[in-house]
Design brief:
mainly alpha; flat; 115 residues
Length: 115
C-alpha cells in the first residue's frame, strides 16, 4: 500500500470532464491530464478536510479534528505492521509466502537496529 488517499475520480468522471472541456465525446485523456485531474481533486478534498477540521477545532474540541483527519486520510501500515500481518496469517490453506511477502519481511528485519 503506497498511496492511501481516498480521493481518486472514477475514469467515467474523467471522461465526462474531458468531454465538457473539449466538446468531443470519446476524446482520449492522456496520462498527464489524468494525473493533473487526480491531483487537483485530491488537493481540493484536502483543502475541504482542513477547513472542516479547523471548523471543529474552533467550535468543539481539538481531538475531534485529529480523529476526523485520521479517519479520512489514514496512514499506510508501517513496514512492521505489514510484516506482522504476513506472519500472523493462518498458513494452513497457503503454506508458503509469496516472493513479495518474503521481501517485505526481509525489509522489516533489515530495518531493525543491529545489536
Amino acid at each position: 500500500m503506497t498511496n492511501q488517499h481516498p480521493i481518486t475520480p472514477p475514469e467515467k468522471l474523467l471522461e465526462e470532464w474531458a468531454t465538457e472541456y473539449w466538446g468531443n465525446p470519446g476524446e482520449s485523456i492522456g496520462c498527464g491530464e489524468k494525473h493533473i485531474a487526480i491531483q487537483a481533486a485530491r488537493w481540493g478534498a484536502d483543502q475541504e478536510l482542513e477547513a472542516c477540521c479547523n471548523y471543529f477545532e474552533d467550535r468543539l474540541r481539538e481531538g475531534i479534528a485529529k480523529d476526523l483527519r485520521a479517519a479520512r486520510r489514514p496512514k499506510p501500515p508501517t513496514l512492521k505492521e505489514q510484516a506482522l500481518a504476513l506472519v500472523s496469517h493462518d498458513f494452513s490453506d497457503q503454506p508458503c509466502l509469496s516472493e513479495e511477502g518474503y521481501a517485505l519481511i526481509r525489509r522489516a528485519l533489515e530495518a531493525l537496529p543491529n545489536d
